[in-house]
Automatic annotation (TrEMBL):
The keyword Nucleotide-binding applies. This is Protein kinase domain-containing protein. The lineage of its organism: Bacteria, Bacillati, Bacillota, Bacilli, Bacillales. ATP binds at K60. It comes from the Bacteria. Residues 33-309 form the Protein kinase domain. It comes from Candidatus Reconcilbacillus cellulovorans. The keyword Membrane applies.
Amino acid sequence: MANRFVITSFETPSAFRLAPGCTIVGKWGGRRYVVERLLGEGAGGAVYAVRSAQGLAALKFGRDALSLQSEINAVHTLIDRGAVSPDSLLDADDWRSPDGVFSFYVAAYREGEDIVRFVRRRGADWFGTVTVGLLGRLEAIHRAGWAYGDLKPAHVLVGPYGKVELVDFGGATPFGQAVREFTERYDRGFWRAGDRTADPGYDLFAFAVMCLEMDGAVRLQNADRHPRMLLKRLDASAALRPVAGLLREMLSGPHRSTSELAADWRRAVRVGRSFSPRMAGRVPNGPIVAGFALSAAMFAAAAALYVLK
């Protein structure tokens, strides 16, 4: 079958399209990937589910080669320091297409649902499991001296039994540097709660905002861009009362270490297991597994793992 593709430019997210069945061959490594479907796209690139000799994977094209290389370097470093799984980066190469040469990298493919949707759909009994899992992921990255950066629901996928996957490392930044990529709604600077310097508190602030969103009773208004609005919503949430003190610390600072906060969080969610009837749902029987992977991100209909942006 001949390759089918439409690449007009990389100026807009909709400009890059590869049809199912298109074959991508690495210019340097020679590995072959057959496109199955588009997973998502954003300002940083486009992500596809692809089939290779090793099975299903997620392949990201970068709109800017230097930015994509920075992301690849970040993932390399985090793998070397034991902060993320080795399957977060399976291959990196260029593809010589009829319209030019495009850089890409490949990661393991996983399925999941964004963390906020998962909790709202599955119920409050899952709140502790998935938030403890997410803090564990952040703790590992922080121990390596990095901030995750662009933390938001679409970048945190949860599998059927509670396995948490951090995805899209485009925002990963060494401590002390300006955060490379962020999303305003979860950005400490946007809420006037601090700067955009990479540190543990930057990620923990975003974590707290997502916890507010998990309570269906909470409605965040971007118009009132000040920490007091977030704290007001927190005070009004009966669902989050067992962890309200910790969330207040994350929203206000100064912060203790992520390890200390995670330990206190685990104790708090054990004490306050029932969080909110608004999150209530049937919880299936089965083991709870916490793990790490990579998925398709940058699109709120999170269904597959990857790294995007």
